[in-house]
Amino acid sequence: MELKELAMALAIWLWAIWPGLWIWFIGKWALEALWRNPEASSKIQSLAILCIALAEAVAIYALVIALIIGFAM
To answer: How does pLDDT run across 55-71, given as a tens digit for each residue?
Structure first.
C-alpha cells in the first residue's frame, strides 16, 4: 500500500512541477516580448496562451497516471 501511494505522489510531483515552471517561463518570456515589441501583442498573447495550455496538458496527464496507479494497481 505504501509503494502505491509513493508512486502516485511521485507521478504527480514530477510531472506537475515541470509544467508549473514552464508556465512561469512562458509568462516571463511573453512579458519580455511585449515589452520589446508592444505592437505584436495579439500574436504574442495567442501563442503564449497556446503554449500554456499545452504545458498544462502535461499536468493533466500526470493526474491521470496517478489515478491509474491508485485505482488499477
So the answer is: 888 888 888 887 887 78
Domain count, the chain: 1
Query: Cα–Cα distance between 70 and 54 in angstroms, integer?
Result: 25
Q: What does the block give as the cell for 40?
A: 505584436
Average pLDDT for residues 17-21, to the nearest whole number?
84
Residue 36 one-letter amino acid: R
Domain extent at residue 10 = 2-72
Q: Check: pTM over 0.85? Answer yes or no.
A: no
CATH of residue 63 = 1.20.20.10
Q: From CA 27, how far away is CA 15, in angstroms rounded? A: 19
